[in-house]
Amino acid sequence: MKEQTPMGRFSVQFVVANNRDVMQATPGVPIPEGVKHLVLSGVVDSGAARLVLPQCAVDELRLQGHGETTVRYADGRRERRPVVSNVWLQLLGRDGVFSAVVEPDRQDALIGAIVLEELDLVVDCTTQTLRPREPDSILTEIE
What we know:
Elements: E1 3-4, E2 10-18, H1 19-23, E3 37-44, E4 52-54, H2 55-61, E5 65-72, E6 78-91, E7 94-103, E8 109-111, H3 113-118, E9 121-124, E10 129-132
Parallel strand pairs: 3-8, 4-7
Antiparallel strand pairs: 1-2, 2-3, 2-6, 5-6, 6-7, 9-10
């Protein structure tokens, strides 16, 4: 289910968990059901590079810090923000492990190009949807 957002971007629902918990899950128990996880709404923005999570989600999943980064906002401001690692993310039946920038006052997430590329998802601007580039699996191209 998608929700309209300004400037042609759109929202999707996805699942996040702490990958440390995922790695300790009982064998045979489907992920994410076997571990603490959250279903978040995230704005898909292929013009953004990184995954951005709200502080409340980071706290609830007990994600560990992994340094800081500088972020630049649309209005030109620059701020230092924490980065967390080991974010297990599942979107459209595909999953991967990512780092994420933490925004203290944000309520939704931001899904940038790194997540889209890693999960081999294509943004369809006309229908404001995501779709797998290859329906059966992630395609890796090698030269």
